[in-house]
Amino acid sequence: MKRLQGIAAAPGVALEPLSLVRGSPASDHATEPVDLDGAVSEAARQLEQLAARLRAGGRSDEAAIFEAQILMAHDEALLDEARHLIASGEPSDRAISLAGERAAAPLEALSDELLAARGTDVRDVAERIARAVRGERQPSLEQRSIIVAQDIAPSMAAELDSELLAGIALEGGSPSAHACILARALGIPAVVAIPGLMRAVAGASRMSIDGVSGEVVLDPDDVSEAASRERMVDLRHQREADDRLRQHPLATADGHRIIMAANVSRPDEAERARSAGAEAVGLFRTEFAFLDRARAPSEDEQTRAYARVLRTFGGAEVVLRLLDVGGDKPLPYLPQPAEANPFLGVRGIRIGAEQPDVLLVQLRAFIRAAADAQVDAPALMLPMVADLADLHQGRRLLDTAMTQTAARGVAGVQPRLGVMIEVPAAVLVADQLATEAAFFSIGTNDLTQYLLAADRGNAALAARQDPLHPAVLRAISQVVTAAEDHRIPVGVCGEMAGDAIGAVVLIGLGIRELSMDPASFGVIKRAVGGLTRDEMRAVAAECLQLADAVAVRNLVTSRSPTS
Amino acid sequence: MGERTDVGGSLREVTLRILNPSGLHARPAAVFVRGATGFHSEIRVANLSRETERDASAKSVIGVLGLGVSAGDEVRIRADGEDAEAAIAALVELIEEGLGEARTS
Known about the structure:
Chain A is an alpha/beta fold. Helices cover about 50% and strands about 15% of the residues of chain A. Helices cover about 30% and strands about 25% of the residues of chain B.
């Protein structure tokens, strides 16, 4: 028995025989090797069959991808390049593979993720034609099994008989790979980026994979098998309960509606959040556009990325958080002196004082994106605000950006400017901030860290890092009071909003918008739907008088119906 | 909608905006390319809204995707050949009808 750890990419648990896929099975010929034109026809035929099978199975979105691939297989630019290479002496299969790589590169360089992903399709098509040139057969499953491979091309994943595909385990790959999208659509588990998988699997015949924890076990023993089976039953019950709940909005047992919003870190997450039922985006983190790059993203690139998220949500609110980078997330193109305490350093809105350009570009991009997506009431929030001076600085930058975009002829709407409450000082002057901020969003992760003086990253302090600590609850209560007195909305976007007990206490304290990872929607609907608003108010009031987070959790648990 | 330029001879040109919500991604690009391949003329399309202008054959789906046309971008279509006029008219109609998708209005 061997245990390996990877990244969970599609939820579920499977326990089955495994099927190993290694490169191309050169010894297995279905047809004689053919020339390029013959191979193109064969590849197109395979893709047509695949698309037809997917359509018949109701998987029309995937069918459309392969129908687009048929068009690529006949692409004259691609085939001319391959013929050129053949004329200069390359073997046909290598020629088409090379032509595919060359055609894919400019696509993969595009900043639009959807278009960049089509580069994968071009490679996939070129490889299919190359296999057809060599006369190879497609890998297929003989029995219901979990497929193990270094990586899986999109068409290979789609071609595997979905009746027999029980799970996917890859040594390479990433959660946004096509194979994982397929796995999620089929409701089967997938785990990727499993170091050492291909070597460890030698001789193993059976495995379990856990698409939630990311754990993979080769040739599990009886104890491990029994644990896997139990997990499968639990997950199935939960899935059934979630499906029943999908129709219902987030509301208390006595029908008071709570806005169920999503925290989104990248544009592609927005689409998933929308289909999971998110009514709004309470926190649109923008760091994705800035990290892992050598240069700052251009205003155009940012405009496109932000507009994509705004369009996905139509008229519903998407709150963009101004760039929050600093000492702990340094950017190579935004040089800052090293700091001994980056969490207490020059980050968030504080960067605006010294290096306003980066923030101005972002603000202009957001104003343009909102205009492009025809959003009536764009909303923006400032991170790490401690007082009115910080808010004023943000407002000055926003006004400058509005003037700059107007000068270029963009008819932008002034975004509503809100404030993230995460710095303890902001809690204590929340009444002042509420006179000028359009809304509050409480960032309970950082707020808990600062209030309890416990580093989020320090495992030894994990127990202290609980947002249900009465000190944090009292801080939240104070913020809610300030917001209510000045009639501005107040929501929560920290992990606490996606915690079953946290959500109940927050609603009891007066919060009416919870923004969380969409994976928690089902859990929160169940937890909140189990109590009336008055019951939540009563328990929250009692929690404020308790001494620690454990007592709070115990009290709320004792008052909640068993789910 | 669409500015046409009569550049003389067998060359016809038009400039217009793509309004598809996700720009010219796989499905609308396929509709566009299928529309273009029906004509004899050589047809090229350029994305005028990019920092550096690139153009591609309108009959190559890979080329068209590579132009990175986003919603609201302006494209210029040039057709050269005996059926250039008909080709431009057909492609303009396809674009105005949304290339098989609902448009952002």
